[in-house]
Amino acid sequence: MKNKQPSSGTFKGILRYLKPYMPLLICTILLALCTVAGQLAVPYFVGEAIDLIKGAGDVDYTKLYDLFIVIAVCIGAAAFGQWGMSLCNNHIAYKVLADVRRDAFRKLQKLPLSYLDTRAYGDISGVIVSDAEQFADGLLLGFTQLFTGLSTIGGVLAIMLVMRWEIALVVFVITPLSLFCSRFIAKRTYTMFKKQSEVRAEQTAFIDEMIGNLKVVKAYTHEDENEETFDEINGRMKKCSLRAVFFSSTTNPVTRFVNSVVYAAVALSGALFAIANPLTFTVGNLTTFLSYSNQYTKPFNEISEVITEFQNSLACAARIFALLHEEEEVADGTETLGTAEGRVTLTDVAFSYDKERELIRDLNVEAPAGKRVAIVGPTGCGKTTLINLLMRFYDVDEGSVCVDGKDVRKLSRASLRKNYGMVLQETWLKAATVRENLCMGRPDCTEEEMIAAAKAAHAHSFITRLPKGYDTVIGSEGSLSQGQRQLLCIARIMLCRPPMLILDEATSNIDTRTEHKVQDAFARLMQGRTCFVVAHRLSTIQTADTILVMKAGKIIEQGTHKELLEKGGFYRDLYEAQFAE
User: Fold this and answer.
1) 111: buried, middle or exposed (CB in 10 Å: 19+, 13-18, 0-12)?
2) Which residues contact 384 (CB under 8 A, 6 or more apart)?
3) I need a labelling partner for 144 at 20 to 30 A (CA). Which of 45, 367, 405, 411 fits?
4) Does the pLDDT value for residue 100 go beyond 80?
5) pLDDT (tens digit, 9 = 90+) per residue, 513-539?
6) Do 431 and 474 meet the contact criterion of CB atoms below 8 Å apart?
7) 3-state secondary structure of 563
8) Statement: the pTM of the whole predicted model exceeds 0.70
9) Is residue 331 part of a domain?
10) SS3 category, 475
């Protein structure tokens, strides 16, 4: 089975994120040593205090008082070290969490659209939110207990060897059994926690999808089917979680059993030594050894718990680093496109999303500057794909796409896209005020320019009726229809006035009366600009300079509306299907 254990790349990734906080890490280690030193000193001085109580009326109170002061100081030092270590660990863990989420989000901006198109959004958000949180929690717990645990084990073993190596040898021989049990269980829990993390992401993605499309679910009375799907995923989640928790929960009882055996062995052997050598091994020494045996075995319990949590943390870290190591978009071009004239050429273009299924082959398009090019055809013929290539959301497999004679692959994406204004059938507005949404493309615009653009898009009237006008927060105080949202997207483009336009069913959600008004505004906006118009309603593209008729990824006809009707080909069939009466 693959991925039974975390790869070395996961550990390297964790160390890379810890590197900037190395001073805090060193401080954590020093405070851990301070904590352990204080905790280990207490049993020794308690044993010394017990030996000062020799019998009734034979107690050295002066030395006993001094020892109590020393014990109090040791306890205070251990408490201070524990507090300081927790403070440093919190800082490290949550700084690393912030860094991981920042890098993961930045990575999303650099990933190709093909990555996002082939994965559920809930799965991706689950990695950044849930998995990162689990990773930070495991990291925090690991730092808090791992350092103190290892230091305690080493310190206790050293002291016991100095005091009485024979008894220390008993502890040392039995202890590996605890380590063996912990390792045996840890090997199996990593795979289970990794599977749990994957199923949890699948569940998050399904819930996210269903909430976002609940209207469609209800419209098609698909509630029962969704419940069945959710129950199936939830069942797998329950099974994975129970198996992971069951195996991980066996660690603590097993190690506690071994620890009890160690304690009994120390008590028996220590008692025999005390009876045989009362002068060299006192009751106080025996008490100290018993305390140390508890301190020695306790970290194994804690470390076993840490290992369980750490396995979950590593499983989540592996998913995060898998995202961070995804291949980014093809390197950006170095040339900068200024204000484009708008001459667009596609030459011998071949492209497909799935390399085994050909979509576009030998596509040639010539769009002169300032001309209006319409693209029509049946669903799945490649119209939207052509837009993706123009905007360089995807790069061509063969051939070239050129703007003003420059191959777009040599241009920076930012400079290319600044020259395009795009209005899609699916509107997107961020959770912000109407003003912020309109000015997204031109943050430096004036109030007058913004209002003029809204009026040109026939959006000003409904904006002023919102509770706070242009300062209304969309999705909170303002509830907008799809048509109103699309008008805002159109106004946003009219404010930017780019040299090239892409309109993909830009008026599909607008009523006919408003559409005629917006089309007039678009007609004024299109003057002198290169425009690509994707349309299903052929009435909206009759005035286009060139109409490209696509079918199965190829242009089968092109010409003006009148020329294509006279040809009596596929375009005429489409036109007559819409205007049969």
Assistant:
1) middle
2) 504, 534
3) 45
4) yes
5) 766 766 776 777 777 888 888 877 777
6) yes
7) helix
8) no
9) no
10) coil
